[in-house]
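User: Can you predict the 3D structure for this chain?
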Amino acid sequence: MNDVLKVSGLSRSFTQGGVTIDVLRGVDLTVGPGEIVALLGPSGSGKSTLLQAVGLLEGGFDGSIRIAGEEAAKLDNDGRTRLRRDALGFVYQFHHLLPDFNATENVVLPQVIRDATMAAARTRAESLLTALGLGHRLDHRPSQLSGGEQQRVAVARALANRPALVLADEPTGNLDERTADVVLAEFLRLVRGEGSAALVATHNERLAQKMDRVVRLHEGRLEEASGR
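Assistant: Here is the predicted structure, written as structure tokens:
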């Protein structure tokens, strides 16, 4: 079966004060269907830069990124937007929920953008939120939810369009340890249940070991760290 993600020779450099900094140096990475991979590394190691590249959120990269069989470099802006919308889901350290929308509406919106009917989108949203233990919070706005609950809504939103690949950048980094453990467990359970693959950036070795495979970003290159 084809890989959901195949990155080959990915490089990214920045110039600051006349000095060139190589953040990514020939990164190679594959993620198979349904596989959850931890991207481990300290803050500033380039994890977010790699996720931005894979998420087609930023240009200036050299190398190849294939998502669900499509080569991103061959796509124009509209094509990258379509691929990002149809094949990817995103979870960030900070939930970035729309403050004027309730939990259900935050999960409905990306589906409607992808032309789902309102009825189907609402059913899907309520199903995901209920699976995450938020069945009693469907009509609450973000300001009425705890940090852990807000991040659960963000997880549901990321999975709303049944993406082939979920990208998560320190998804529990803004939570206390106990809440982080609970949210990560629910995230992993739901992603596996949905059959999506995931690439999860974290600096937490303990959390990384809960995933199927661990790769470590070191001096701009990826190294296989360990299995689950």
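The mean pLDDT is 87. The chain has one domain: 5-227.
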